[in-house]
Amino acid sequence: MADGSDAQTSYGQSERFDKLRLIRSANIGPVSYFQLLARFGTAGAALSAIPELAGRGGGRAPRIAEIREIESEIRAVEKLGARHLFVGEGLYPTLLAELDSAPPVLIVRGNLRLLDRPAVAIVGARNASAAACRFARGLAHDLAEEGCIVVSGLARGIDTAAHQGALGQGQGGATAAIIASGIDIAFPPENEELQENIAQFGVLIAEQIPGREPLARHFPSRNRIIAGLAIGTVIVEAAPRSGSLITARLANEAGREVMAVPGSPLDPRAQGCNALIRDGATLIQNAGDVLETIRPMSSHVAQPSTGWRAAPVDADASDVERRAITNLLGHTPVSVDELVRQSGFHPAVVATVLLELELGGRLERHAGGRVSLGKRG
């Protein structure tokens, strides 16, 4: 790929190239990405408009991803035998596309048709007990035999057991692994062979670009993909305040089923699951319990992906509106709905001002549709 036009021609439609460039630019997250496309129609037009919008937000124009960076990423993905999958494309997972925070683009390897199956996430403790790992392995195997795809995060413990159970002897491979690194990075290192088996027989999915090592902030993002892909999430073992409970919360916020396996009250690793059941999660003892729980939603998976749903963004906002909304913000996260209520402005006006602040580097977005002023705010 000698230049940008060659890269775009080789890659396919130039709009897909521009979309990748947009999401790889600084200060662009899923929400701002979708809002920019909704407002300007094309990624190319959105890229051109970013400097002016950032200026309105009181900040400097963010760094736009350079063409050579996108060329390099495309070459790396192709060399790895993977591909980019954008929201709105037919193979993009239907349920994941429904999230407001859906990743605009995924990097995937494997049999994408497996994602048409009803998906069940199985997650749990990294330092899981032998009994819990055996249970997770058997549960995943039985769900795969019943036509489900088992989704997990390839972590030690329960995740590993779930992937192994769904893979069986490598025949069928009805499992999807969502990793927090680039698709070419094995983490934890001892799961390198398992990760490759999943890429060969199942589906391997990454949001990060090739070559990127997993960082702490990547894991909550990975967890939202696990929760978003699945009709329901099963927690097998989880200590209080564990990452698995974050996944359960994200699943609940997305309107998906949350299921948990009960454990001994004397085992700290069972406290999270027992608390979930106490708070309304479905108690799970076998694959039949899972199938009965997810059955009402299973038909929804067969619906074709309708693509992303962009929040309304006005053509502009007045200086008075900008000041009023900015003054309502602080360093403590607050919901966007609360900003709309307190400001009295149309949701589209609030969305516009928040977009401008984010592009200017003055706004941070948090889980649950909350926002706050950033360090530069």
Automatic annotation (TrEMBL):
One of its GO terms (biological process) is DNA-mediated transformation. It comes from the Bacteria. Residues 85-294 form the Smf/DprA SLOG domain. InterPro entries: DprA, DprA_WH, DrpA_SLOG, WH-like_DNA-bd_sf. Residues 310-369 form the DprA winged helix domain. It holds the Pfam family DprA_N. Belongs to the DprA/Smf family. This is DNA-protecting protein DprA. It comes from Sphingomonas paeninsulae.
